[in-house]
Amino acid sequence: MWRELACACFGLAVAAAAWLGADAIPRSALADAVGADGLPKRIAVALALVSGWIAARALLQASAPRAATAGFHARALGVPAIGLLCIWMMPWVGYPLAIGLLLAAAAQYYGAPSRARSALFAVAGAALLWLLFSRVLGVPLPGGPF
Asked: Whole-structure pTM over 0.85, yes or no?
């Protein structure tokens, strides 16, 4: 419980620092209705809400503390390993394939019930993310050999 409360307090401190940092961004005559500080402030609010939720859950949780095992920590390292592998291979295989493989690997890693559903999730997710970033937002993405 104390670890969760410490993480929640740290998250709240980072959220406050992010809000103050965003508030220090100078206003410009060219700014739109949201302004340059709009997105950082929204992220700070989201972080504060999540941190508050973590703190509330820790305080309300009545279960006995669980001992972390070496296997638990080793399994936790698999999540960033999948992400790093995706970033590493993206220039060679391209964004859609790398993200599709990332989504499929993450789904299987987290215990998806079937490989067919994981594959469908990966294809649909990669297509949706590619359309969002490449076509809607106009972000140049690595195409790979395609």
From this structure: no
